[in-house]
Amino acid sequence: MSGRALEVLIVEDEMLLAIELEHLIEEVGCHPLGLAMSSDEAVALAQQLHPDLALVDVHLSDGPTGVDVARKISQDCGGVALFMTANVKRLPEDFAGACGVIGKPYSEHGVKTALSYLAHCLREGHAPGPTPVGLTLAPAYADLWGLDQTLAQTA
């Protein structure tokens, strides 16, 4: 994916949040690919569009299915998921294959900083430094991107 804009799928059932995320994605130079509001729609879009990154809420219009969506995107679609949820405690220890989580409520600045950080990680294969405030990386991705665990978990 070197040189091109990060392609991002939004998996969020609250339309206002989805629209806000779409604008934030564009503001950091990434490309929003589409929006899914349910698990079936998310998996179908991920299989069709092959996003670099999917921003995934845990609770979607068809229930708390976001964990399954993240697992399918990472295992079956070749993409990387990032949880964006108020339900951080619902995440499994392995983050369902996702690279990390941003807890809601989040700030505009926090999302932009996290997206820029993750774009660098995905392009270059290593972290540009400690994770930004508000982003917690999954242990597997912290290791993959060369971070000490104490640098990968922020408040």
Describe it.
The chain has six helices and six strands. The protein has 155 residues and is an alpha/beta fold. The longest helix is centred in the C-terminal third of the chain and has 17 residues, at 108-124. The protein is globular.
| Order of strands across the main sheet | 2-1-3-4-5-6
Strand content: 15-25%
Describe the main β-sheet briefly: 6 strands, mixed
**DSSP, total strands:** 6
Distance from first to last alpha carbon: 29 Å
Helix/strand class: alpha/beta
Order of helix and strand elements from N to C terminus: EHEHEHEEHEHH
Number of helical segments? 6
Helix content: 40-55%
* Shape annotation: globular
Give Rg in angstroms. 14 Å
Question: What is the residue-mean pLDDT, rounded to a whole number?
Answer: 92
- The residue ranges in which pLDDT falls below 50 over 5 or more consecutive positions are none
Topology (SSEs and partners):
Elements: E1 7-11, H1 15-27, E2 31-36, H2 39-49, E3 53-56, H3 66-76, E4 80-85, E5 100-103, H4 108-124, E6 135-137, H5 139-144, H6 149-152
Parallel strand pairs: 1-2, 1-3, 3-4, 4-5
Antiparallel strand pairs: 5-6
Keywords for this entry:
6 strands, 155 residues, alpha/beta, single chain, globular, six-stranded mixed beta sheet, 40% helix
Summarize the structure.
With 155 residues, the chain is an alpha/beta fold.
